[in-house]
Amino acid sequence: MHDSSQIRALLKALFDDQRLAVLATHQDGQPYATLVAFGADDDLATLYFATPRATRKFANLSADPRVALLINNSANQPEDIHRAMAATATGRAVELEGPRRAAYEARYIARHPHLEEFVRSPSCALIAVTVERYVLVRSFQTVLELRMTP
Amino acid sequence: MKWIIPLEAASPEDRPRIGGKGYALYRLQAGGFPVPPAVCVTTALYRAYLRRTGVGERILMELNRKSFKDLRWEEIWDSALRIRNLFLRKALPPALGKPVRAALGERFGDSPVAVRSSAPEEDAAAVSFAGLHESFLNVRGADAIIESIRKVWASLWSDAALLYRQELKLGVDKSAMAVVVQQLVNGRVSGVAFSHNPVNAAQGVVEAVHGLNQGLVDGAIAPDRWLIDRQRRQIAGHTPAERREWTVADPGGVRLETLPATLQPKAPLTPAEVLQVFDLALASLDYFQTPQDVEWTFAKRDLYLLQSRPITSSREAAEGDQRGWYLSLKRSFENLKLLRGRIENELIPAMVAAADELAAVDLGQLGDGALAAEIRRRSELNTHWVSVYWAEFIPFAHGVRLFGQVYNDSVHPEDPYEFLALLGQTPMAGLERNRLIAEMAALVRATPDMAAALQAGEPPAGPLAAELAAFIDRFGDLSCPASGARQCTERPETLINVILQLATHPSGLPQAAAGGRAEDLKAVFLRLFSGAERRRAEEMLDLARASYQLRDDDNIHLGRIEARLTAALQEARRRLAPRIPEGAAEIDPAELLLALENPAHALRAQTSGPKTAAPPAVRALRARQLVGQPAGPGVARGPARVIHTTADLASFQAGEILVCDAVDPNMTFFAPLSAGVVERRGGMLIHGAIIAREYGLPCVTGVLDATALIRTGDELTVDGFLGIVTVSTGRL
Question: Can you list the positions of beta strands (E) in A96-141?
Fold first, then answer.
């Protein structure tokens, strides 16, 4: 169960199932965490989300593109400790533009149809995070790391 | 198929899926009643559509921006308009659309049908939703039927439905809508019948009109009415109607037409037919075992039962319940046309004449007693015109909404407020006022050192002083908000500031966005209609333009009358100045009258006195981001200028973001100079939103507690695309 294709399958299933991720940015070293409605590419290389440009998270990731995202399936129950799974992704964020933005916008709308007006607003940025590694936590303390870039 | 169930294939377990009306028709059909053939479009299709298109989640987002109790009626109307547009623009996904289209096509082909709402809550014994949801008559072809089905679904979220379901606690997110698609019976006579007269159980009631039922059900046509003695099965009375119009089928659905002269003198039913209809209501009563209210129609000699539902007691308005008043604002096109005639030909000329007459009175020539009488007279006049404003002008504003709905239903625009572009750039009475202000600004710009002198607080001098006095004489000094509020200052600082801001603004007077697009949109809109429908669409646009224009004009006219009252009060204050105690801030008008009429009266200052500023509290709670409605597209950044009283306008600087409770007509000069507008009052058709759209300013309205949570000087970002206001709160 520890080969990378199985881990990839687990991550993919988790991402398909979850709609929200916790995004970590920072401002001058002060960490800052927010919720974002996210999507993931099939090859897991890119995670994407949308944010208005006036937000703090947008200012933070514009100043320093290094970010982390946490996606988990806990259900707010004691059993979460052994049952839940959490994936942390670290990587670099960039605002999408041009045809790449159009392609990701369509994917984003397919996944979150009710956020269509939101993501299509000219004041809203679509952010892609190129994932450098995933850290997957299961069964309380089993932690595996998947490197996406050398 | 679970999406569509023909009446004859339904079963008792289908009740929650086919709704109240569908279920009643199923029962009637099974009981051998003469109901037209019909199918039920189930709630399963509605739910699947909501889920697969994301429309369901978007409705919840729309309705959860704010607590329902904080929504003004205008905002509820706006929400309903946006939700309706979601339904209009989102087609059925192919997986749903294909089988539904095939089933409808096979069943009805191109023959005309009626598409009627059938909410599961509707027609339940305890609550009557009658008339809250929509029906569409004379619809032909599967595609048109499906579009009407989407409109019926949308009517579950109409403003009226939202207002009532809140009280009935039927759960905004637990609701669903089934639809009945019924073969249209082109009736020669139609009507309703009650097995029991709601006010006298010993009687039954039959109401009838020539033609189709729609006009009667809508309340547009008064029916002939018969009372029937239930015991003896005899007609106990007949009240004929005027019989001027009837509802007929036409290619666009149905419309009201003048009733042919040959039919006008004829009662729609013979006495035998009245009893035949009443027997049908009785048979339905026997069948359902509760008093019934039925809709029926005669096609040639055949009597059809269109629907039957339990009689419910009428909704009685509770004390202080203003929903009835609100719903009464939703006037019909015909009603609005009459109202327009009265406003344009009688009320506005009378208002202008009243203001002119008041302006001609030389207050300085009046003795003290006569001045007191003049103040009383002006106060009464002002009160009279404020009440006319509420009773006649405000309802006329519905003309804009009526047009908006017609435009959206036919054009399906991406922006549900696109229709406003067809209404703008109309010459408004405010224009003359604007022109005089621009003239004074030009004077300041052309006179060396004048701007600096005014900025330094020196009083206006020379020709500017004369122009200012003439302006104030005509329009007031901008410090009195129109329509009844009392916040006037006695120094024209607000007016001087707007002149200064315009004079020193680099580009001079901001210009409203060009109106070229309006003609294109108008052409696209009108092309969708032909013949009589086209004339009606043109008339509706013309009415909407008049309605739109009046929104500004009425305030200006009202402001002129109010300004005359203020002028008389100021004359009284000037005369009584020696008797006003030292340091008294404000003297009540009633006190002024007493003092004018009695030289011995000792003037008392208002007890409230000037407000002392609260000690600066530590701002533990600050707003970082506030959500309202996007009311003018664009993004703006700038320092906030929060307007608590009109006096705050005197310090407004061009480029600031105007944050206020409501953009008053007197603030219309400042809005174009601002970088953006944030308003506590919600709505897309309110003054601030309309000005913002005309000048292309980012605008967010309906921001709860905007003036309390935002402080002057806060750095704001106004996102007019998403309806978000972000406050810079400093470093983390």
Answer: 124-138
Report how far residue B570's alpha carbon sits from residue B573's, in angstroms, rounded to the nearest whole number. Answer: 5
pLDDT (0 to 100) of residue B132: 60
All residues of chain A having their beta carbon less than 8 Å from the beta carbon of residue B56 are 114
Interface check for B724 against chain A (CB to CB < 8 A): the answer is yes
ipTM score assigned to the predicted complex? 0.82
CA distance A132 to chain B (A): 27
To the nearest whole angstrom, how far is the Cα of A119 from the nearest Cα of chain B?
10
Residue with the larger pLDDT of the pair B629 and B181:
B181
Q: What is the DSSP string of B531-542?
A: HHHHHHHHHHHH
Which CATH number does the domain housing residue A132 bear?
Answer: 2.30.110.10
A123–B721: do the CB atoms touch at under 8 Å? yes
| A-B contacts at Cβ under 8 angstroms | 50
Considering only CB atoms, which chain A residues are within 8 Å of B53? 113
How many angstroms separate the CA atoms of B715 and B340, rounded? 44
Span of A27-31, B28-32, B170-174, B396-400 with lowest mean pLDDT:
B170-174
Could you give the dihedral angle defined by the CA atoms of residues B630, B632, B633 and B636, in that order, rounded to the nearest 10 degrees? -100
H/E stretch holding B237 reads strand B234-239
Segment B549-564 mean pLDDT: 80
CB distance from A29 to chain B under 8 Å?
no
Tokens of A92: 């670099």
State the Cα–Cα distance between residues B631 and A28, nearest whole angstrom. Answer: 36
| Identity of the residue in B54, B633, B719 whose CB atom sits nearest the CB atom of A54 | B719
Contacts with B58 from chain A: Cβ below 8 Å: 113-114, 116-117
Q: Do A123 and B58 touch (CB under 8 A)?
A: no
**CB contact B58 to A (< 8 Å):** yes
Which pLDDT score is estimated for B121? 66
Within 213-252 of B, beta carbons closer than 8 Å to A belong to: none
Q: pLDDT at residue B70 above 60?
A: yes
pLDDT band at B220 (very low <50, low <70, confident <90, very high): confident
**How far apart, in Å, do the first and last CA atoms of chain A sit?**
23
How many domains are there within chain A? Answer: 1
Nearest CA to B143 out of B104, B113, B85, B111 is that of B104
Is A55 touching B (CB cutoff 8 A)? yes
SS3 content of chain A, % helix, strand, coil (to 5): 30, 45, 25
Quick one: how far is CA B654 from the chain centroid? Answer: 32
> Distance of alpha carbon B579 from its chain centroid, rounded?
49
Instruction: State how far the Cα of B404 lies from the Cα of B238, in Å rounded to an integer.
Output: 41
Separation in Å, CA of A83 to nearest CA in chain B: 29
The pLDDT score that the predictor gives to residue B172 is 54
Note whether A53 contacts B: Cβ–Cβ < 8 A.
Answer: yes
Choose the mutation target among B719, B727, B728 for the interface with A, i.e. most A CBs under 10 Å. Answer: B719
The answer to whether the CB atoms of A55 and B726 lie below 8 A apart is: yes
The helix (run of H) or strand (run of E) holding residue B347 is none
Residue B235: the pLDDT is 93
- Asked if B187 and B304 touch (Cβ cutoff 8 Å), the reply is yes
> How many other C-beta atoms can be found within 10 angstroms of the C-beta atom of residue B699?
33
pLDDT at B326: 58
Report yes or no: A77 and A47 within 8 Å, Cβ to Cβ: no
Mean pLDDT, chain B, integer: 83
Task: Indicate if the pLDDT at residue B218 is higher than 50.
Answer: yes
Residue A24 belongs to what domain range?
4-147
- At B39, list the tokens: 């199918």
Report residue A37 CA to chain centroid gap: 8
Among A142, A126, A145, residue whose Cα is nearest residue A58: A126
How far is A38 from chain B, CA to nearest CA, in Å? 16
| B19: its two tokens | 């709704």
With CA atoms as reference, the chain A residue closest to B718 would be A54
